[in-house]
Specification:
This protein has 255 residues and is of the alpha+beta class. It has helices spanning 13-27, 35-43, 90-104, 119-128, 166-172, 192-198, 200-219, and strands at residues 5-9, 47-53, 56-68, 71-81, 109-114, 132-137, 156-162, 184-189, 222-230, 233-240.
Protein backbone atom coordinates (compact mmCIF):
# COMPACT_ATOMS: atom_id res chain seq x y z
CA UNK A 1 0.00 0.00 0.00
CA UNK A 2 1.61 3.29 -1.06
CA UNK A 3 2.50 5.41 1.99
CA UNK A 4 0.81 8.47 0.50
CA UNK A 5 -2.67 6.93 0.85
CA UNK A 6 -4.28 8.71 3.80
CA UNK A 7 -7.35 7.39 5.61
CA UNK A 8 -9.35 10.09 7.42
CA UNK A 9 -12.81 11.50 8.03
CA UNK A 10 -14.48 13.44 5.24
CA UNK A 11 -15.87 16.67 6.64
CA UNK A 12 -16.63 19.20 3.91
CA UNK A 13 -19.45 19.43 1.41
CA UNK A 14 -16.91 19.31 -1.42
CA UNK A 15 -15.55 16.02 -0.11
CA UNK A 16 -19.09 14.66 0.17
CA UNK A 17 -19.70 15.62 -3.46
CA UNK A 18 -16.57 13.66 -4.40
CA UNK A 19 -18.04 10.65 -2.58
CA UNK A 20 -21.17 11.00 -4.73
CA UNK A 21 -18.99 11.01 -7.86
CA UNK A 22 -17.38 7.73 -6.76
CA UNK A 23 -20.84 6.28 -6.09
CA UNK A 24 -21.90 6.99 -9.67
CA UNK A 25 -18.75 5.38 -11.05
CA UNK A 26 -19.39 2.24 -8.96
CA UNK A 27 -23.15 1.72 -8.96
CA UNK A 28 -24.58 4.11 -11.55
CA UNK A 29 -27.14 6.84 -11.05
CA UNK A 30 -30.08 4.67 -10.01
CA UNK A 31 -28.91 3.89 -6.48
CA UNK A 32 -26.62 6.87 -5.83
CA UNK A 33 -27.49 8.80 -2.65
CA UNK A 34 -27.03 12.59 -2.74
CA UNK A 35 -24.50 14.68 -0.84
CA UNK A 36 -27.28 15.77 1.52
CA UNK A 37 -27.36 12.25 3.01
CA UNK A 38 -23.65 12.51 3.78
CA UNK A 39 -24.33 15.81 5.56
CA UNK A 40 -27.10 14.14 7.59
CA UNK A 41 -24.79 11.24 8.49
CA UNK A 42 -22.06 13.65 9.57
CA UNK A 43 -24.42 15.56 11.88
CA UNK A 44 -26.29 12.57 13.34
CA UNK A 45 -23.50 10.36 14.62
CA UNK A 46 -22.59 8.51 11.42
CA UNK A 47 -19.25 8.16 9.67
CA UNK A 48 -17.86 9.27 6.33
CA UNK A 49 -14.33 7.90 6.00
CA UNK A 50 -12.26 8.61 2.91
CA UNK A 51 -9.07 7.24 1.34
CA UNK A 52 -7.00 10.00 -0.25
CA UNK A 53 -4.09 9.75 -2.65
CA UNK A 54 -2.68 13.20 -2.19
CA UNK A 55 -5.75 15.37 -2.47
CA UNK A 56 -7.68 12.87 -4.59
CA UNK A 57 -10.47 10.78 -3.07
CA UNK A 58 -9.98 7.18 -4.20
CA UNK A 59 -12.37 5.37 -1.85
CA UNK A 60 -14.82 5.95 0.97
CA UNK A 61 -17.20 4.29 3.39
CA UNK A 62 -20.50 5.83 4.52
CA UNK A 63 -21.98 4.76 7.85
CA UNK A 64 -25.28 5.82 9.41
CA UNK A 65 -26.04 5.88 13.14
CA UNK A 66 -28.34 3.02 14.19
CA UNK A 67 -30.20 2.10 17.36
CA UNK A 68 -32.21 -0.83 18.66
CA UNK A 69 -33.38 -1.17 22.26
CA UNK A 70 -30.21 -1.49 24.29
CA UNK A 71 -27.93 -1.43 21.23
CA UNK A 72 -26.17 1.40 19.42
CA UNK A 73 -24.48 0.47 16.15
CA UNK A 74 -23.23 1.86 12.86
CA UNK A 75 -24.95 0.75 9.67
CA UNK A 76 -22.24 0.90 7.01
CA UNK A 77 -24.38 1.66 3.99
CA UNK A 78 -21.73 1.64 1.27
CA UNK A 79 -18.01 1.24 0.70
CA UNK A 80 -16.22 1.63 -2.61
CA UNK A 81 -12.67 1.94 -3.93
CA UNK A 82 -11.70 3.05 -7.43
CA UNK A 83 -10.76 0.05 -9.63
CA UNK A 84 -7.11 1.06 -9.99
CA UNK A 85 -6.75 1.08 -6.17
CA UNK A 86 -8.52 -2.22 -5.52
CA UNK A 87 -6.64 -5.29 -4.22
CA UNK A 88 -4.10 -2.98 -2.58
CA UNK A 89 -5.51 -2.96 0.96
CA UNK A 90 -7.46 0.30 0.70
CA UNK A 91 -10.84 -1.25 1.52
CA UNK A 92 -9.44 -3.03 4.57
CA UNK A 93 -7.82 0.16 5.85
CA UNK A 94 -11.14 1.99 5.47
CA UNK A 95 -12.88 -0.70 7.55
CA UNK A 96 -10.15 -0.74 10.20
CA UNK A 97 -10.39 3.04 10.55
CA UNK A 98 -14.17 2.66 10.84
CA UNK A 99 -13.69 0.08 13.59
CA UNK A 100 -11.21 2.22 15.51
CA UNK A 101 -13.47 5.27 15.32
CA UNK A 102 -16.55 3.31 16.46
CA UNK A 103 -14.71 1.79 19.43
CA UNK A 104 -13.48 5.22 20.50
CA UNK A 105 -17.12 6.28 20.67
CA UNK A 106 -18.19 3.20 22.62
CA UNK A 107 -20.01 1.61 19.68
CA UNK A 108 -19.49 -2.19 19.68
CA UNK A 109 -21.13 -3.15 16.38
CA UNK A 110 -20.94 -2.23 12.71
CA UNK A 111 -23.42 -3.80 10.30
CA UNK A 112 -23.73 -3.78 6.53
CA UNK A 113 -25.44 -5.75 3.80
CA UNK A 114 -23.74 -7.74 1.07
CA UNK A 115 -24.77 -9.88 -1.88
CA UNK A 116 -24.57 -13.62 -1.03
CA UNK A 117 -23.75 -14.24 -4.71
CA UNK A 118 -20.47 -12.32 -4.42
CA UNK A 119 -18.00 -14.84 -2.90
CA UNK A 120 -15.10 -12.38 -2.99
CA UNK A 121 -17.01 -9.87 -0.86
CA UNK A 122 -18.11 -12.66 1.48
CA UNK A 123 -14.49 -13.74 1.94
CA UNK A 124 -13.45 -10.17 2.78
CA UNK A 125 -16.31 -9.71 5.25
CA UNK A 126 -16.25 -13.08 7.01
CA UNK A 127 -12.67 -14.29 6.68
CA UNK A 128 -10.59 -11.11 6.51
CA UNK A 129 -12.60 -8.96 8.93
CA UNK A 130 -14.30 -11.55 11.13
CA UNK A 131 -17.90 -10.47 10.59
CA UNK A 132 -20.70 -13.05 10.79
CA UNK A 133 -24.15 -13.26 9.15
CA UNK A 134 -27.38 -14.65 10.60
CA UNK A 135 -29.97 -12.58 8.72
CA UNK A 136 -31.05 -12.80 5.10
CA UNK A 137 -33.20 -10.11 3.48
CA UNK A 138 -34.86 -11.15 0.19
CA UNK A 139 -34.92 -8.34 -2.39
CA UNK A 140 -33.65 -5.84 0.17
CA UNK A 141 -33.50 -2.79 -2.13
CA UNK A 142 -35.85 -3.94 -4.89
CA UNK A 143 -34.80 -4.66 -8.46
CA UNK A 144 -32.55 -1.85 -9.71
CA UNK A 145 -31.13 -0.74 -13.04
CA UNK A 146 -27.55 -1.09 -11.80
CA UNK A 147 -25.54 -3.44 -14.06
CA UNK A 148 -23.93 -4.86 -10.92
CA UNK A 149 -27.27 -6.42 -9.93
CA UNK A 150 -27.89 -8.03 -13.36
CA UNK A 151 -31.66 -7.49 -13.04
CA UNK A 152 -31.93 -9.94 -10.11
CA UNK A 153 -33.71 -9.31 -6.83
CA UNK A 154 -31.30 -7.60 -4.45
CA UNK A 155 -31.09 -10.37 -1.84
CA UNK A 156 -28.69 -9.48 0.96
CA UNK A 157 -26.95 -11.04 3.91
CA UNK A 158 -26.47 -8.75 6.91
CA UNK A 159 -22.90 -8.69 8.20
CA UNK A 160 -22.47 -8.16 11.94
CA UNK A 161 -18.99 -7.01 12.90
CA UNK A 162 -18.61 -7.29 16.66
CA UNK A 163 -15.65 -4.98 16.88
CA UNK A 164 -14.08 -5.86 20.23
CA UNK A 165 -14.85 -9.60 20.26
CA UNK A 166 -12.05 -12.12 20.66
CA UNK A 167 -13.08 -13.55 17.29
CA UNK A 168 -12.47 -10.26 15.49
CA UNK A 169 -9.31 -9.40 17.40
CA UNK A 170 -7.85 -12.82 16.60
CA UNK A 171 -8.64 -12.57 12.90
CA UNK A 172 -7.24 -9.04 12.61
CA UNK A 173 -4.06 -10.24 14.32
CA UNK A 174 -3.78 -13.14 11.82
CA UNK A 175 -4.39 -15.58 14.66
CA UNK A 176 -7.94 -16.84 14.10
CA UNK A 177 -9.67 -18.98 16.70
CA UNK A 178 -10.66 -22.54 15.74
CA UNK A 179 -14.09 -23.17 14.24
CA UNK A 180 -16.82 -25.29 15.76
CA UNK A 181 -16.75 -29.05 15.27
CA UNK A 182 -20.32 -28.76 13.96
CA UNK A 183 -20.95 -27.10 10.62
CA UNK A 184 -23.36 -26.80 7.72
CA UNK A 185 -22.54 -25.65 4.19
CA UNK A 186 -24.28 -23.68 1.48
CA UNK A 187 -22.63 -24.10 -1.91
CA UNK A 188 -22.82 -21.68 -4.85
CA UNK A 189 -20.91 -21.74 -8.14
CA UNK A 190 -17.56 -19.98 -7.79
CA UNK A 191 -18.23 -18.19 -11.10
CA UNK A 192 -21.73 -17.08 -10.08
CA UNK A 193 -20.95 -13.43 -10.91
CA UNK A 194 -20.29 -14.41 -14.52
CA UNK A 195 -23.36 -16.66 -14.60
CA UNK A 196 -25.75 -13.96 -13.45
CA UNK A 197 -24.30 -11.39 -15.86
CA UNK A 198 -24.67 -13.72 -18.88
CA UNK A 199 -27.70 -15.87 -18.01
CA UNK A 200 -30.24 -14.14 -15.80
CA UNK A 201 -32.55 -17.16 -15.54
CA UNK A 202 -29.80 -19.46 -14.30
CA UNK A 203 -28.54 -16.76 -11.97
CA UNK A 204 -32.00 -16.40 -10.47
CA UNK A 205 -32.27 -20.17 -9.93
CA UNK A 206 -28.95 -20.15 -8.08
CA UNK A 207 -30.14 -17.19 -6.02
CA UNK A 208 -33.45 -18.83 -5.12
CA UNK A 209 -31.75 -22.06 -4.04
CA UNK A 210 -29.27 -20.14 -1.86
CA UNK A 211 -32.08 -18.01 -0.41
CA UNK A 212 -34.10 -21.05 0.63
CA UNK A 213 -31.11 -22.71 2.30
CA UNK A 214 -29.96 -19.58 4.15
CA UNK A 215 -33.47 -18.89 5.47
CA UNK A 216 -33.85 -22.50 6.57
CA UNK A 217 -30.53 -22.67 8.43
CA UNK A 218 -30.78 -19.20 9.97
CA UNK A 219 -34.22 -20.09 11.31
CA UNK A 220 -32.66 -23.20 12.88
CA UNK A 221 -29.98 -21.15 14.67
CA UNK A 222 -27.01 -21.49 12.34
CA UNK A 223 -24.69 -18.54 11.60
CA UNK A 224 -22.47 -17.94 8.54
CA UNK A 225 -18.90 -17.51 9.78
CA UNK A 226 -16.69 -18.26 6.77
CA UNK A 227 -16.53 -19.12 3.08
CA UNK A 228 -14.07 -21.24 1.14
CA UNK A 229 -13.60 -21.94 -2.56
CA UNK A 230 -12.65 -25.31 -3.98
CA UNK A 231 -12.51 -25.65 -7.74
CA UNK A 232 -15.83 -24.59 -9.23
CA UNK A 233 -17.67 -24.21 -5.90
CA UNK A 234 -17.67 -21.60 -3.14
CA UNK A 235 -19.13 -22.86 0.14
CA UNK A 236 -20.43 -20.77 3.00
CA UNK A 237 -19.63 -22.41 6.34
CA UNK A 238 -22.21 -22.07 9.09
CA UNK A 239 -21.80 -22.82 12.80
CA UNK A 240 -24.30 -23.06 15.67
CA UNK A 241 -24.90 -19.60 17.13
CA UNK A 242 -23.79 -20.69 20.60
CA UNK A 243 -20.56 -22.34 19.46
CA UNK A 244 -18.69 -19.57 17.62
CA UNK A 245 -15.21 -19.25 19.15
CA UNK A 246 -14.57 -15.83 20.66
CA UNK A 247 -18.08 -14.48 20.09
CA UNK A 248 -21.17 -14.54 22.26
CA UNK A 249 -24.02 -13.31 20.11
CA UNK A 250 -26.90 -11.50 21.78
CA UNK A 251 -30.40 -12.31 20.65
CA UNK A 252 -31.43 -10.28 17.65
CA UNK A 253 -34.59 -8.17 17.89
CA UNK A 254 -35.51 -6.11 14.83
CA UNK A 255 -37.50 -3.54 16.82
Amino acid sequence: MPAEIEIRHCRSLEEFKECVRLERLTWGEAITVPAAIFVVAEHSGGQIVGAFDGGRLVGFTLGLAGFRPGQHFIHSHMTTVLPEYQNRGVGRRLKLFQRQDALKRGIPLVEWTFDPLEPKNAHFNLVRLGAIARRYIPDCYGVTESPLHAGLPTDRLVAEWWLDSERVKGILADDPLPGSAKSERIAIPADVAEIKSKDRATGERVQQAARAKFLELFEAGWVATSIESTGSVSSYILEPAGEISGLRLPEFHEH
